[in-house]
Amino acid sequence: MDNVSIITVFTLSGLSDIANYRVILFVLTLLCYCVIWLVNLTIIVTVIVDKSLHEPMYIFLCNLCVNGLYGTAAFYPKFLYDLLSTTHVISYAGCLLQGFVLHSSVCADCSLLALMAYDRYVAICRPLVYHSLMTKQKVCILIFFAWIIAFYLLFMSTITTAVLRLCGSHIPRIYCINWLISNLACSASVAKIIIPAFNYTFCVGHVLFIFWSYVHLIKTCQSSKENWNKFMQTCVPHLFCIIVVVVSFLFDMLYLRFGSKEIPQSVQNFMAMEILLIPPIMHPLMYGFKLTKIRNTVLNFICEYRVFPLEAVKTWVLAGQQVEEHGISARP
Predict the structure, then answer these.
(1) Confidence (pLDDT) at 326
(2) pLDDT digits (tens, 9 = 90+) for 72-90
(3) Does 153 or 258 have the greater pLDDT score?
(4) CA–CA distances in Å: residue 95 to residues 66, 89, 193, 271
(5) What's the rounded Cα separation, in Å, for the pair 325 and 94?
(6) Phi-psi region of 313 (alpha: psi -120 to 50; beta: other; left: phi over 0)
(7) Rounded to an integer, what distance in angstroms lies between the CA atom of residue 77 and that of residue 29?
(8) Contact 89, 12 (CB under 8 A)
């Protein structure tokens, strides 16, 4: 117990067997991180620059992409450094900060996806009151609370973890999370049981709300071809993103608590990374390809600067415009 106060660094054991292929991993990881920045930044800049995209759904999408960059920034730079280093350690404060950012990013993801589900529910099920309910002021308030609640929940969790008396410094993963830090505590604490349970309940509540909204959406859209087209155009990407996030989160959480230690380390590393790899790439790609207004704006930019052959881009833009003419729009 007297040695508790001298713990200033944690050892990350996830990269202990990569000496033979660390350069390849570094190149692949750097490529993935560059793709994450490219696709997310493309959506963010597109929504900010194009005033016709200053609508609730696109504003929520922009925040979702910002959150993707925010969450991955806590992992990839440190991971890339560790790939080229012979010692894999992280400071006590750095470990707490990494856990805070990663956890708060997941919570913000849940909140923003729930807001997007609410936006689609009002747009399709209650179109007459959409513009009075989803004003820019109300949208800003909703986004503010989506971020601030996520930060508050994880701030409390991080503070509770930080005051624990630790009897170890070995973290069996490639990054820090609060649950693994609390496992090093000398005795059981509220940080390991009550706080995580409350945070998980928060995320599960959002998922249940999304499920409820989609039940009503599907019932409403079945009676109208126009509403069904709108559902397929704007709700299917959102539904796919929700499934990706939920499956990734559940997969990671269940493996973390019940996974076998006999699984090869490389497989364990991939399972730890997938929640930081798949959702940040899939969110902007799904919306970028599926939502016509975003796709056309990006293609028009490419056409203007001759990134691709002009005729090919015009063909893609024309195809998107023909889809819009058939009543498939993101607006109510």
Answers:
(1) 47
(2) 999 999 999 988 888 888 9
(3) 153
(4) 22, 9, 20, 20
(5) 52
(6) alpha
(7) 10
(8) yes
List, in order, residues 6 or more apart from 229 with CB less than 8 Å away.
Answer: 326, 327, 328
Phi and psi angles of residue 168, each rounded to the nearest 5 degrees, phi first: -165, 165
Amino acid identity for residue 172 in this structure: P
**Amino acid symbol at 258:** F
Q: What is the pTM of this model?
A: 0.83
DSSP state of 164: P
CB 110 within 8 A of CB 245: yes
pLDDT in tens, 122-140: 888 888 888 888 998 999 9
List helix spans (H) across the chain: 22-49, 56-73, 76-83, 92-125, 130-133, 136-162, 178-182, 190-221, 225-230, 236-258, 265-290, 292-304, 310-325
Distance CA 24, CA 3 (A): 39
65 confidence band (pLDDT: 50, 70, 90): very high
* Cα separation, 316 vs 31, whole angstroms: 27
Which amino acid is present at 93?
A
Tokens representing 220? 């409403």
Is the pLDDT assigned to residue 329 strictly greater than 50? Answer: no
Task: Tell me whether residue 19 is exposed, middle or buried, using C-beta atoms within 10 angstroms of its C-beta: 0 to 12, 13 to 18, 19 or more.
Answer: exposed
Which tops the pLDDT comparison, 284 or 76? 76
Task: Give the phi and the psi of residue 166 in degrees, each rounded to 5.
Answer: -100, 145
8 Å CB contact between 78 and 175? yes
Task: Write out the two tokens for 134.
Answer: 């989803």
Query: What single letter denotes the amino acid at residue 262?
Result: E
How confident is the model over 201-213, as a mean pLDDT? 86
